[in-house]
């Protein structure tokens, strides 16, 4: 038998008493249950209500009726109000997102049209389905991208594109950070590192490779012709020669002269942004720049991603030193469900934090490429704030939609973008520090 109401205007639900709201009464203020007009609200003068806040919603956590026993919160009130707010929020986000996309695409087209013939620009928007794009680190990535684009624009696969693309700086004797003409270690020996990864998760790498120009092609041969992922040193060299790669002296006269100049002081200090040619010529005259790499990511017309990374490593390094560039998960990582990432800068810090893998995993969790790169850089800074003011680390990423993002510790990092819209775009990367790196 139901107990008599302490107030004739109340209704009983379970063991608690509730007061109906008038049909046109607005939402009650905080301290009352948030409910749509016409739904029952708990009566505050007959029950103590603990309120909980979630996503700016207020609803009763529990009631304490007259008989002293605790009851669960009013699910009907919370559910109805929550659905109403969720629908409103979803409608708002949908409208805002569509507007932002339209504005972004229109702005990109206008800026690109206005900058025809220029070599700098803004971060490009997402691609339509079936479109291709290739991105790479630093200004020498422009020529590398254009070589990769020859394959992508004809419907070729991303794996072929990234290999062909990074072979360009590998064969450039004027680039002292990659391949032929790369600066040697402190013993005067040029050693190369590289890795490659396709959309199926297959990967190959070489480290401390001597006497072969195209380390990236040797890395692909490791992936396709051996059961292993990485070969190093003499083993990598022997494998390359057996596969028919020509033996080539990598130390050029200019690199040898720079090494002999370095021997006078034997000063070993990684400089930031030496991959940036304008920075290198202005800040490091006489060949004192000392690292590091080109990383490339490509999305083909089939919707598949691949990546490549190749370097001659830090100049004047200890013989046998290996950086992040040939290490899958550090210098490069590709997950065809999500996206890909590559890194540049001081490889030891990237290895310690498994940088490229972490960027891809953050994109898997919903971050944009730009936000994922930023978060990874901030993680490095939080862990070693005293070191990161003088060294450079940067990340470049692209997701399955072709969205691109990059972020670095220091000012000066740049990346190249190539697609059907533009083939010569160089974008300045964002950075944590906006002034020049400390000396």
Automatic annotation (TrEMBL):
SUPFAM superfamilies attached to this UniProt entry: N-terminal nucleophile aminohydrolases (Ntn hydrolases)
Encoding gene per record: aspG
Residues the record lists as binding substrate: 321-324, 344-347
GO MF assignments: hydrolase activity, acting on carbon-nitrogen (but not peptide) bonds, in linear amides
Origin species: Xanthomonas oryzae pv. oryzae (strain KACC10331 / KXO85)
Residues of the active site: 293
Site (Cleavage): 292-293
A cellular component term, taken from the record's GO annotations: cytoplasm
Name the record gives this protein: Asparaginase
Domain of life: Bacteria
Pfam families recorded: Asparaginase_2
């Amino acid at each position: 038998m139901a107990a008599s109401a302490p107030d004739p205007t109340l209704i009983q639900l379970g063991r608690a008493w509730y007061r109906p709201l008038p049909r046109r009464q607005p939402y009650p203020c905080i301290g009352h249950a948030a409910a749509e007009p016409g739904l029952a609200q708990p009566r505050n003068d007959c029950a103590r209500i603990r309120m909980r806040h979630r996503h700016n919603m207020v609803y009763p956590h529990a009631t304490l009726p007259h008989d002293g026993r605790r009851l669960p919160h009013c699910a009907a009130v919370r559910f109805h109000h929550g659905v109403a707010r969720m629908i409103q929020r979803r409608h708002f986000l949908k409208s805002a997102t569509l507007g932002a996309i339209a504005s972004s695409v229109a702005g990109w087209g206008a800026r690109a049209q206005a900058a025809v013939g220029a070599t700098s620009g803004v971060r490009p928007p997402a691609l339509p389905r079936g479109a291709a794009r290739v991105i790479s680190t630093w200004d020498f990535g422009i020529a590398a991208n254009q070589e990769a684009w020859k394959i992508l624009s004809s419907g070729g696969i991303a794996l072929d594109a990234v290999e062909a693309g990074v072979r360009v700086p590998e064969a450039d004797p004027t680039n002292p950070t990659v391949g032929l003409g790369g600066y040697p270690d402190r013993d005067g020996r040029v050693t190369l590192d590289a890795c490659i990864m396709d959309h199926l998760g297959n990967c190959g790498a070489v480290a401390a490779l001597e006497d072969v120009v195209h380390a990236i092609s040797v890395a692909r041969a490791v992936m396709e012709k051996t059961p292993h992922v990485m070969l190093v040193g003499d083993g990598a060299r022997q494998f390359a020669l057996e596969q028919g790669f020509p033996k080539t002296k990598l130390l050029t006269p200019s690199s040898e002269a720079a090494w002999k100049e370095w021997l006078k002081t034997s000063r070993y200090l990684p400089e930031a942004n030496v991959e940036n040619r304008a920075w290198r010529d202005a800040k490091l005259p006489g060949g004192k720049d000392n690292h590091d790499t080109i990383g490339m990511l490509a999305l083909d017309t089939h919707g598949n991603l691949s990546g490549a990374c190749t370097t001659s490593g830090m100049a004047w390094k200890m013989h046998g030193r290996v950086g992040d560039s040939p290490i899958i998960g550090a210098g490069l990582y590709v997950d065809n469900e999500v996206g890909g990432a590559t890194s540049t800068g001081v490889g030891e810090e990237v290895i310690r934090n498994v940088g490229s893998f972490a960027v891809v995993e953050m994109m898997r969790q919903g971050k944009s490429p730009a936000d994922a790169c930023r978060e990874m850089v901030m993680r490095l800074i939080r862990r070693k704030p005293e070191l990161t003011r003088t060294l450079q680390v940067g990340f470049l990423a692209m997701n399955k939609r072709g969205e691109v993002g990059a972020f670095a510790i220091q000012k000066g990092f740049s990346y190249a973008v190539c697609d059907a819209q533009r083939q010569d775009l160089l974008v300045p990367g964002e950075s944590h520090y906006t002034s020049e790196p400390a000396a």
